[in-house]
Every structure is written in structure tokens, then in C-alpha cells.
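Journal club side-thread
Mid-discussion, someone asked how the predicted structure for our own chain would compare to the paper's figures. Pasting it here so we can look after the session.
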Amino acid sequence: MLLISFFKTIFKKSKILFLGIIIYILGITYTGIAINQISPFYVWGMYATPTKSKDEYSFTQITYNNEIIDNFPVYMDFKKGFYNYPLYTYLSYEKFSNHESFNKNAHNKLGKYPNLYERIISNEKDWERYFIYYKDFLEVRLKNKANSILIEEIKINYQENGKSIKKGKRTLYEYSK
């Protein structure tokens, strides 16, 4: 009863607003019945697309003072994931930085700002400095000095039965006193 009086009041005050509300309600009803969606704004296809399996998966393993502190995947332990997260920046940049299309696109967009372009398109010395920062980052977070740090990228693939097979690894950074 209250809803009907609300719509009557809106109809009397503003016919455009009333029409907009009716169109919105009809749109939600149509998508809910005909297209099997919740609303026009929350489309399941945007969020529930199937994930394609890959031949190879990679993750990083951090060994700090001869103790593994992060061995991905640890989905529920945010503290361990926090140590690993900065490395994804490194790995994703390393993957795309040598791509010709990446460099060309960056140059086209940032060519008129040479200082910014030089800072984004970095070189090996920048990554050496990155790992010095990362060592300091780990020392502060773990609250003890680093005697040794080993950061490795480990590549695995999965068999049909779901068991993982280690395909190889590469050392990203190694530090020892």
C-alpha cells in the first residue's frame, strides 16, 4: 500500500522520474527472466568466465635466513602473501619490458616526457636497486637482519589427476653476508 502511494506521488510530481523508475524495473524483470541475469548492471558473464588452463604455472619462493617464508599458493595467509606481492610487479614488468609493442606504446604515450619515459623503461641497474629495497623491506617486516635471501621463480605443471610436477626454477635474487 505504501509502495503504491509512493509511485502515485512520484507520478504527480515528475512524470520523467516515474518513467525512468518503471523502465528500470522492467529492465531488471526482463534480464532476470529472459536472459537469466540478476540485473542489467551485474552481468554474470563478466565475472564467471571459464579460466583456461595453462601448460605451465609459476610462483615465487622466498627463503630468508635458510627458512622458506613464502611458498605460494597460500591463499588464506595474507601475511605470507604480503611478502610475495611486490615480486609480482617485478615479474610482470620483466615479462613485458622487452616486448617491442610495450616499448613502442610507452614511447608513443610518454615520448614528450623524456624523464618519465626513462624512469618507466628501466634497465638492469634499476632492478638491482629494487632487490636492495626488497631486502630492506623483508628485514623491517620480519624484524631481523638478513644473513641470506634466496628468491626463486618455480615453474610447475599439473597432471590430469591434479598432482603438480616441478618443471624447473630460476634464481631471481640471491644475497648472503
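Post-session note: Residues 44 and 159 are 30 Å apart (CA to CA).
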